[in-house]
Amino acid sequence: MMKYLCAYAATLVVMVAIDLVWLGIVARPLYQQGIGHLMAEQANLTAAAIFYLVYVSFLVYLGVAPTAGEPGVKPAFIAGALLGLFAYATYDLTNLAVLRGWPIGLALIDMAWGTLISGVATAAGKFALDRFVAS
Length: 135
Hints:
Helices cover 81% and strands 0% of the residues. The protein has 5 helices and no strands. The mean pLDDT is 95. Helix 1 packs across helix 3 (45-64), helix 1 (2-26) runs antiparallel to helix 5 and helix 3 (45-64) packs across helix 4. With 135 residues, the chain is mainly alpha-helical. The protein is elongated, with a radius of gyration of 16 Å.
């Protein structure tokens, strides 16, 4: 159990750290331009924390744990990336379907981002799991 808590912690730290840079610096102008009229003045940190805690649990459960017996991080990266694609596509394609003026370009960027960050975070969790098991 401790090895999975270690994997969870690594996945969470990587996911949050990279996403903070993405949302706070890199992609902020894209979101402002595309959906700025919908954005809150301040982020709801409680909702964000719940999202990260829940989403990372699924990355570990569906991405790290099933690849525990396989060498390296590539299988975990692929599993996490697929989960990210499905999750972010659900969000973005639903917004395209039901919200007036949701930018398709932003949706595509967001889906690509969700795929990448989920893969990287899951790979980090697998890396931590492998190090825990090796020690």
